[in-house]
């Protein structure tokens, strides 16, 4: 029973908030801003960016803001801009925007929130990994069938070998 509990604990995946990982959390002008990204490990390509805005007092969600994202690759200066809206989010307490990060490396993120005529800016840095090759991301699925065929062939060979050894044994009795 104890081994089962340990195994269950080891197999649990890390908790990921709302389908993404928290990459940035900051406070500005009485707002608590939390930025999520999916996939949790950023790679070059499509990324879903979600933003949760909360009032500093009481942590109530803020649902009437204008949220803009500006991402800039530090190496090349490539700019990506997006307007995050609640319409694009599955969870309607969040502001979401799909963006495409064209290259790996360090990216500067600037999040601009406009609410009741007050503009707040939060900045941070993102590390974006190179895109994984499709084959590399599915290597386990690709390797499983050939591995099972090889193991089955070894099993059959061992069984035949064992049967041949049993057939060649001669028991002689002397009278």
Give a verbal description of the structure.
This protein is α+β, with helices and mostly antiparallel strands. It folds into 2 domains: 130 residues, Macroglobulin (MG2) domain (Immunoglobulin-like, Sandwich), CATH 2.60.40; 32 residues. It contains 3 helices and 8 strands, in the order αββββββββαα. The protein has a 4-stranded antiparallel sheet with strand order 1-2-3-6, with no helix packed on it. A 4-stranded antiparallel sheet has the order 5-4-7-8, with no helix packed on it. The N and C termini lie far apart (58 Å).
List keywords for this structure.
8 strands; Immunoglobulin-like; single chain; 175 residues; 41% strand; four-stranded antiparallel sheet; alpha+beta
Distance between the termini: 58 Å
* CATH architecture annotation of the largest domain: Sandwich
Tally of domains: 2
Helix content: 25-40%
CATH class of the largest domain: Mainly Beta
Can you give the mean pLDDT? 83
Mind summarizing the main beta sheet? Answer: 4 strands, antiparallel
Under CATH, the topology of the largest domain can be stated as: Immunoglobulin-like
Overall spatial form:
elongated
Q: Give the SSE string.
A: HEEEEEEEEHH
- Tally of alpha and pi helices: 3
Radius of gyration: 28 Å
Which structural class matches the secondary elements? Answer: alpha+beta
How do the strands of the widest beta sheet line up side by side?
A: 1-2-3-6
Proportion of residues in extended strands = 35-45%
Question: What would you give as the CATH superfamily of the largest domain?
Answer: Macroglobulin (MG2) domain
- Strand segment count: 8
Assembly status = single chain
Low-pLDDT runs: 3-18
